[in-house]
Amino acid sequence: MKEFDLIGRYFAAGGYERKDVVVGIGDDCAVTTVAPNQQLAITTDTLVSGVHFLKDAPAKSVAYKAVAVNLSDLAAMGAEPAWISLSLAMSEVDDAWLADFAEGMYELTQYYSVQLIGGDTVRGPLSMTITAQGFVPPGNELKRSTARPGDWIFVTGTLGDAAAGLAVLQKSLDAGDGVREYLINRHLYPTPRVAAGTALRRLASACIDVSDGFLSDLGHILRNSACGAHVQVDQLPLSAQLNDCVSPDKAREYALTGGDDYELIFTVNEEQRGNLETALGSTGVKFTCVGQITGNAGKVDLKLGDAPFPMPELSGYEHSF
């Protein structure tokens, strides 16, 4: 199948259409309109087979996750997603795989009112690069570098489920049918916290999404903000499903070091803490206070109750070259 036939069959139609897209797929460039009093937030992520997703992962989940991780980055900046472009490399054309891939991509873009506006397809090892763009009002962007001592540390949702789901898929963790399905879905189909991210504008002092693990990603905030943190390990939000299939110690390990949750870690000062319930209440997203920012730059103090908790040997996923 020729490249333009492939694009026409699977990607040129069927997705969400936005009024701010002047020229979409079919020309050398897309042309879009940026609304007045808005800044453009841009992020790019590449997912490679065997590195970011299992080689036998369903095509629908691969596309879904590829879109979700980019929307999660926008959410962490407080941006509302608008457009994506896709570069897809594959060794051969598989019609059934491509149909499922397009379904997974469009399921998420339809839900978040995001339009695919362009990209590329090439022959090569299976991988995909998505660039996502969204809007954030001037001065409302959330950053990693603006946490301050005394700020409270919060996290959305639950932690550790995606890492446990990967362990189930890799057959290193056993789980009952209901629990198994829940954990696997949390790994294959993460939920970008877009509504929570936009609700945190003007409230959160800093924010990041949990892609590489709670401790690893909190560490980015601490390094960029020249701060430290006290984390109450027994306050980490854990799902009933995770607690059902592993020991408390293993659940905490997954929560602290497991990646791919795509929840938000955010910090809030004492003055704004009381406004969180109102701001996030309409999103339906659970959030939990797990600690506080300190002035001890680079130092993370973990506690289980009143007792010190040892720092895990694993500190989250990091690419090596």
Shape assignment: globular
CATH topology of the largest domain: Phosphoribosyl-aminoimidazole Synthetase, Chain A, domain 2
The CATH architecture category of the largest domain equals: Alpha-Beta Complex
Query: On the 0-100 scale, what is the average pLDDT?
Result: 93
Distance between the termini: 34 Å
- Helix and strand composition category: alpha+beta
CATH superfamily of the largest domain: PurM-like C-terminal domain
Order the strands across the largest sheet as they lie in space.
8-10-7-11-9-12-13
Level-1 CATH class name of the largest domain: Alpha Beta
Please describe the biggest sheet, giving its number of strands, its sense, and whether it closes into a barrel. 7 strands, mixed
Count of separate DSSP helical elements: 11
In short:
The chain is α+β, with helices and mostly antiparallel strands and 321 residues long. The protein has eleven helices and 13 strands.
